[in-house]
Amino acid sequence: MSERIFIGVAWPYANGSLHLGQIAGAYLPADIFARYHRTRGNEVLMVSGSDQHGTPTTIKAEQTGKTPAEIAQFYQREFLDCWQKFGISFDLFTTTGTRNHAGVAQDIFLKLLEKGYLYKDTVSQAYCSSCQRFLPDRYIEGTCPNCSSPNARGDQCEACGKLLDAPDLIEARCRLCGTPPAYKDSEQFFFKLPAFRDKLLDWVRGKKHWRPNVLNFTTRFLEEGLIDRAITRDIGWGVPVPVEGFEDKRIYVWFEAVIGYLSASKQWAKKIAGDADKWRPFWSEGVKSYYFIGKDNIIFHTIMWPAMLMGYGGLALPYDVPSNEFMTIEGKKISTSRNWAVWLPDYLARYDPDPLRYILSINMPESSDTDFSWREFVRRNNDELVAAYGNLVNRVLTFVYRNFDGRVPEPGALSEADNALMKNAAAALEETGRLIAACSFKQAIMTAMAAAREVNRYLDEKAPWKVIKEDRPAAADSLYAALYAISCLKTALYPFLPFSSQKVHEYLGFAGRVEEYGWQVQDLPPGQRLREPQPLFTKLDEAVIEEETRRIGT
Ligand SMILES: [Zn+2]
Ligand SMILES: [Zn+2]
To answer: What pLDDT is stored for residue 10 in this prediction?
Structure first.
């Protein structure tokens, strides 16, 4: 029975390039998950898009003398280019700047208003007398009342992660000119979040399959109690508030961006699937919805968005929110402002995608923060990816190609050891799939790599390269068993290493794409014509470590 899987992935702000922390945190795990389920034969819809409306985009525009729309378009193109080169296989990666998105967001707004979950209230809003404008939260900086970090933003403190209200900041100042903000009355819409608290608590209690950090964080947040939250503000860039008298205001980006999961699904149905109703099965009973995000985004996906969906009614709530922890770079927290990051476009300009996908997968920050260093990158590339897997594939395929007339050899009566190897590889394929389905990506790739090491051990023992001189049939047996195991490995590793797996698939003589063959052991007919193999990966020089480390932070 095929399953229906909806995959929502965090919406990156269209104000800067993607860095490895975001990739390891959300995009790569989502892609591994999507590729696995598609290969399994399940129906998958994976969407995301760039978040254009955040103040991060307007701030970037002001800094660079461009319009927010120009900034948003620039990064949207760069993101799309990265997904293609890095192999993040979205069904649709759109933006919050479409008319479709504005319409869907306004529909949800009006429905919640009609159901009595929204109300108007007058609030005192930060105003800069020298800039003569209202200041959105991100335009206010000051000292965090929770951890005393001196550069907390008006919406959230990056140092401790606490969500803030701008008036709580100590020694608040306008980020444009440094003037302490004054306060002026302004009318805004509020969302009655506390109305959903009990329902949310009940719902969360059933989520035993959630990662402990996500479950604990959410439960604690709900138990501490919820407050009404403003969902409109005085700003000119964003989705218009569909209510008279609010022409100068926009829907708050935290409220509007999460609606992107739904609006993107509708856009996909209309524009790509060619059937405007095709989104419905991915938002109704029977679907399993997964949201891949970083830990700074948990409450928006386990509290705000579910509350909005409950209020709207009739749409599927998240099934799981496998949020990742953070990745540090060379032992330090990533800071985009200090350029302490490894940028994905930079990486892709110099190296192949699969080695990075490998390293980020096997070192994924699933249950605790992990670190990326160029020394580890080079070591794992050379000692693991090249030595344990790439060389294995290349050695076996090249030897068979040259010695068996470019065809899969005909095995005789396979020995116990040959059968054991094949059985082990088939079991590793099944186990890798089970672990991916459980969002245990690190364990999954380790399982596949352990199976590759097993093939190496087997070949060291069998040494078909020597045996062939005295006993050609025996060499054919062990090479057949090794090819069979490699064929299992290329499927098991496909969600992680899609580019090289596709190559192995073709070298083994299969047509089409890996995905089309299913998550199962493939029949490897003796006599099947192979294609001439090329090395899958490149060994990296130690000089890479120093060269690349020097770039960080400069
Ligand atoms: Zn703080
Ligand atoms: Zn100012």
So the answer is: 97
d(CA 176, ligand 2 centre) in Å: 5
pLDDT tens digits, residue range 397-409? 999 999 999 999 9
Say what the pLDDT of residue 553 is.
Answer: 83
CA 238/CA 52 separation, integer angstroms:
8
Cβ 194 vs Cβ 155: under 8 Å: no
Quick one: which of 183, 82, 169 has its CA closest to 129? 183
Pull the structure tokens for residue 69: 């729309």
Which residues neighbour 144 within 8 Å (Cβ) at sequence distance 6 or greater?
150, 152, 157, 159, 160, 162, 164, 169, 170
Q: How far is the CA of 138 from the centre of ligand 2 (A)?
A: 12
Chain segment 159-197, per-residue pLDDT in tens: 888 888 888 899 999 998 999 999 999 999 999 999 999
Burial class (CB in 10 A: 0-12, 13-18, 19+), 539: middle
Contact between residue 326 and residue 365 where contact means Cβ atoms under 8 Å apart = yes
Closest CA to 198 of 349, 52, 306: 306
Residue 260 in tokens: 């992107």
Cα distance between residue 305 and residue 302, in whole Å: 7
Contact between residue 495 and residue 29 where contact means Cβ atoms under 8 Å apart:
no
pLDDT above 70 covers a percentage of the chain that reads: 100
Task: Output the 3-class SS for 63-85.
Answer: HHCCCHHHHHHHHHHHHHHHHHH
Starting from the CA of residue 149, give the closest ligand: 1
Distance 14 CA to ligand 2 centre (A): 23
Neighbours of ion ligand 2 (CB under 5 A): 128, 130-131, 174, 176-177, 179
Q: Which residues contact 267 (CB under 8 A, 6 or more apart)?
A: 92, 94, 98, 100, 101
Rounded to the nearest angstrom, the distance between the alpha carbon of 175 and the centre of ligand 2 is 7
**According to the model, what pLDDT value does residue 160 have?**
86
| pLDDT (tens digit per residue) in 222-239 | 999 999 999 999 888 999
For residue 57, report the distance from its CA to the centre of ligand 2, in Å.
18
Q: What stretches of 334-390 show up as alpha helix (H) in DSSP?
A: 344-350, 353-362, 374-379
CA of 161 to the centre of ligand 1 (A): 6
Mean pLDDT of the chain: 96
